[in-house]
Every structure is written in structure tokens, then in C-alpha cells.
Write a structure and sequence with these properties.
Blueprint (H helix, E strand, L loop, with lengths): L1 H31 L20 E5 L10 H9 L4 E2 L8 H13 L9 E6 L1 H9 L6 E7 L10 H5 L17 E4 L10 E4 L4 H5 L5 H10 L3 E2 L17 E6 L7 H10 L3 E5 L5 H4 L1 H15 L1
Parallel strand pairs: 1-2, 1-3, 3-4, 4-8, 8-9
Antiparallel strand pairs: 5-6, 6-7
Amino acid sequence: MNAVTTARPARLRLVAIAALLALAGLLATALTGGTARAAGPHALTWTGRTRPVIVLEHGAWANSSSWDGVIRILIRKGFTVYAPPDPLRGLAADSAYLHDFLTENAALAGRPVVLVGHSYGGAVITNAAVGDPEVKALVYVDAFIPAKGESIAGLLARPQGAGSCIGGNPATVFNPVPFPGAPAGDADLYLQPGKFRGCFASGLSASEAALLAATQRPLAANAATDVSGTPAWRTIPSWAVVGTADKVIPLALENFMARRAHAHITDVRAGHLSLISRPRAVAMVIVRAAWATS
């Protein structure tokens, strides 16, 4: 009798626990949007798919380390990642350098590539990917996405570019420094220190902005006026991360360029350096691009 009476409460407790667990599962499904969420980039299963190589191109006044947070996430997810240096010597030269990295590099031979560009790097990947059949997707991160015949300066001069914090009088934005072998009238342009935290690195801490200012790599002045060629986004699917608080490339201009390129757009609450302030959000867009094209 005692055995029967003690076993029944135990069974009841197990039934109650099972019911609670089932209810919790239903609630979790309802709150997260059901099984549709499982298809997101956090839960993608790559069995039977080829993971593309991810190649990251940094922009002006930065270097490859600006991708560090994004790289760590992508490597944890099993991707091979490269972040070659951008010479920042002019759009034609920089695009040719990256094109050769993609097409002449034995480590990339025959492997599909997702090519990612930040800021000025967006203009570089737009030109570098032309003629490379292995580039399967372009991802633009707070980036310039020029059409044929456009330059960085020309894009910022459009009505949508009004209010850029690097526009206006160049003497209040840049410190020009000559470099050996520079064409007549050309020089390296360094961003003035005061333009870092409030402009280029808006949204980052004072110490982060100071570190970026101290380690910045300058952009040759002629890069801003170099004219872009036929854009790779005409034939290659593209994605765009748009920092809604970007002060370098105004939101209206970023949206105009991304929509013109028929990019899949993801808005991120960040300034111009979302790759540093929101690396996970940026990495997830890259993963989605890789998944869609693999």
C-alpha cells in the first residue's frame, strides 16, 4: 500500500514536469517566431555545401585589423578568411592589387569567394571582382557602391551626400603629407585627429577612437577622384550593411547606392565603423551571403 501511494505522486510529478517542459517549448517557439528562425545564420548547417572563402577589404584611415572582431566570428563558424592590405594608392591601382590577390593566389584557386568591402573598400571590390568568376557575392559594409563613371568625391557631391562629416573644406578635414613618387598634386591624406571620434569613429569609445587615429593609414588624394569602371554588382549578387548613424556616408546616400545595386539591405544601429562596434551583426550578413551563394 505504501509503495503504491508513494509511486503515484512520483508519476504525477513526472507528468507535471513534462507538461511544463512542453509548455515552455511552445512558448519559446511562439516568442522566437517558430521554426523559421532555425534557418537563420546562427543555425545554418553546411553539410553538403561548399563554404566560400571570405575576403575582407578595409577602407581608408584603417587597416586590416579593423576586421578583427568579424574575423574571429567567421573563423569560429568554420570559414577561411583573408584580409589583405589595401594599398590606398588610387582606385585603379588598389582594385588591380585586390584582383591579382583573388586570381593569382594559389590558396584561392578554384574556391568560391565572398568579397567584402568597407567604406572606400566598397569601391575597390566593385572594380576588383570584375572578370573573376569565383567571386559569388559582394558584401558592402558602410560602403561606397559606385556605378560606372562615378568617383567617391562625385558620390559625396550628390544631394544624398549632403552632410557628410568629411565634406566641406578639405583644410578642416585632412592633413596632407607628400609621399615619394607621388604624381603632381597628389599627397597622402590623413584625417585630422578631431575628425575621429565625432565623425569617422562615432559610436566608439574615446580610447578606441584615439587608437584608430594613431594607427590610421592615409588615402592618396587622387583616390577620391578616380573614376570607377563597370561595376561587378551588375552581375554578382550583393548585400549591404547600412549604419543608420553613419556620419561619413550619409544614410540617404548609402540607401541610394545599395538599392541601385539591388543589394539585400540590413540596417544596423551604428556609425561608420559597424565592423568594429557591431561585428556580430556584420558577420551574420556575410554568413547569409555565403549561404545564399554556396
